[in-house]
Write a structure and sequence with these properties.
mainly alpha; globular; Ribonucleotide Reductase, subunit A
Length: 331
């Protein structure tokens, strides 16, 4: 049987548990938070006063912070790309009434994620500290360009990717929340904190998918994990670009900014890898082929090697001048 057919068989076998996993990791729409819970209510007389308060508190936040918040928001707004990618994964079938359980998972997960970009977008618009037209152009470019995360249609590789990426976004939003809180911006802090909570739930879900695959197809799951970490995780915002029409160094500069203020660093990347190795108990997996044993050895040694490399990375001290941020903030 081909690897593709084996993966499809495993996805069909695990599908019976997806409904219960949705109940465990996703929240009912009527109970989960919505963007309006954290934004001024336009139906109330206090609407403009609240906007003024947002803009006054926003003045306390530095330039690099705005770059990171904008980059995080644009990444969340590129959600159509992520959904279309996951809908094409082997075993995910949206044909028929509602599709199979895997496609229902993708749609409900997307619906939860969609709120993140919505609330951050509206906050940025009200803050008066950013150039929304430039942000909108970058968002449209990112969706129009699309991206290749190197997983093909392989569910094993895709679930490694999402397990990693959801934890990375948890870290980023959580730290942005802490910076906002230190400046007294409680509204923004709560907003980013609750987003990070969603990301952690989603990380736990995708990590459990991988755990379940390890139990039924350990060797090929190990090979998929090895493949993804050897080629390195491509971040969703890798092809960020500002207006101008060409792929630029925007992602690199955004990453430098995030590292400079400690929101997401090269050390965090390695920490996530180690957390996944520990969570999936890679050292205890049994019944591996010789090739998978070699893959396991590679993975077990990888964090220490990557920590040494992370220590050597030098982050530029000077900030790149993004069009996203208002001129008054760039000064």
């Amino acid at each position: 049987m081909s690897l593709k057919n084996v993966r499809l068989e495993v996805m069909e076998f695990l599908e019976k548990d997806v409904a219960s996993l949705m109940e465990k990791y996703l929240m009912p729409i009527e109970k989960i938070w919505q963007p309006t819970d954290f934004l001024p209510n336009s139906e109330k007389d206090t609407f403009f006063e609240e906007i003024k308060e947002i803009q006054e508190l926003a003045k306390e936040l530095p330039y690099d912070f705005w770059v990171v918040l904008v980059g995080d928001m644009i990444t969340e707004e590129a959600l159509p790309t992520y959904e279309s990618w996951l809908m094409d994964v082997e075993g995910v079938n949206q044909v028929g009434e509602g599709g199979n359980s895997w496609s229902k998972w993708v749609k409900h997960w997307t619906a939860e994620e969609n709120r993140h970009g919505d609330v951050l977008n509206k906050y940025l618009y009200l803050s008066g500290r950013v150039n929304m037209k430039e942000i909108e152009k970058t968002t449209q470019y990112l969706i129009a360009d699309g991206f290749d995360i190197g997983t093909d249609r392989d569910p094993y590789k895709n679930f490694v990717y999402t397990s990693f990426q959801e934890l990375a976004t948890y870290i980023s939003h959580n730290r942005v929340a802490k910076i906002a809180k230190k400046t007294g911006n409680k509204r923004l802090a709560k907003m980013c904190q609750i987003i990070s909570g969603d990301e952690m739930r989603h990380h736990n879900a995708y990590s459990e998918f991988v755990e379940r695959i390890f139990k039924v197809d350990p060797s090929q799951m190990m090979m998929a994990f090895h493949y993804m970490m050897k080629q390195k995780i491509t971040m969703p915002a890798h092809f960020l670009r500002e207006s101008g029409g060409q792929i630029s160094s925007a992602f690199e500069e955004f990453s430098n900014t995030a590292q400079r203020i400690g929101v997401y660093t090269s050390t965090d990347y390695v920490d996530i890898l180690q957390k996944l190795i520990d969570r999936w108990q890679i050292d205890k997996i049994t019944n591996l082929t010789d090739e998978a044993e070699k893959a396991r050895d590679y993975l077990m040694k990888l964090p220490s090697r990557m920590y040494r490399l992370a220590e050597r990375i030098k982050v530029p001290e000077n900030s790149f001048e993004f069009k996203w941020v208002a001129p008054a903030v760039r000064k």
